[in-house]
Design brief:
The chain is mostly beta strands and about 120 residues long. The chain has no helices and 11 strands. The strands form 2 sheets. Strands 2, 4, 5, 6, 9, 10 and 11 form a 7-stranded mixed β-sheet that branches. The relative contact order is 0.32.
Length: about 120
């Protein structure tokens, strides 16, 4: 089992920045992927950004150039640096961990972009 704990959400003005963190604990496999998802119309969750243990990165088109995903493997932590935030970025952000056993989700951290 893997447990995920997110932090770093909050209220920020448009154009501001936030940094989300997600700590994975439990049985962590060396080959895995971690990332961030958020709810989207017609989908349960849409990909925001993912980064696997090989270093492959994927971003949603809507966040390219504004968000940066990174990870500290020694700390089993993935980060999402969010810059130039827009009101449409307001939602819950869920951390995801995936390996050959399956996919695990955090509880979500709320990001609100409002003046």
């Amino acid at each position: 089992q893997v447990q995920l704990v997110e932090s770093g959400g909050g209220l920020v003005q448009p154009g501001g920045s936030l940094r989300l963190s997600c700590l994975a604990s439990g049985s962590i496999f060396g080959i895995n992927a971690m990332g961030w998802f958020r709810p989207a119309p017609g989908q349960r969750r849409e990909l925001v950004a993912t980064l696997n243990s090989a270093g492959d990165i994927h971003y949603a088109d809507s966040v390219k150039g504004r968000f940066t995903i990174s990870r500290d493997n020694a700390k089993n932590t993935v980060y999402l640096q969010m810059n130039t935030l827009k009101p449409e970025d307001t939602t819950l952000y869920y951390c995801m961990y995936s390996d050959r056993r399956g996919t695990y989700w955090g509880q979500g951290t709320q990001v609100t972009v409002s003046s």
